[in-house]
Amino acid sequence: MRSRYTAHCRGDISWLRKTLAPDRQSTFDPIATAEWAMQNQWTGLKILKTRRGRAQDDEGTVLFKASYHTPTGPGTHRENSLFRRVDGRWYYVDAVQAKIRG
Fold it and tell me: Which of 3, 13, 25, 50 is most deeply buried (CB count within 10 A of its CB)?
């Protein structure tokens, strides 16, 4: 989770794709992702809650809040993200509840 946030901060779109679940990579839009990531000045990440995702688990969720600033003012991206382990590596699958921006 933290590495994906850092990738958004740095505009490292290749890392975002690499850490996306393999079955989701064909629909990944690197241009739109880069535009959204670079439009924002990311100012902080707060992990609000985790569920599972430990060494013995194959899935887990991370509820987080990422703060950012745009030319029009501050914003927050809040998401409950689903991660899945495949061959020993963790991948982002999708949000498991509505994403909130604003």
Answer: 13
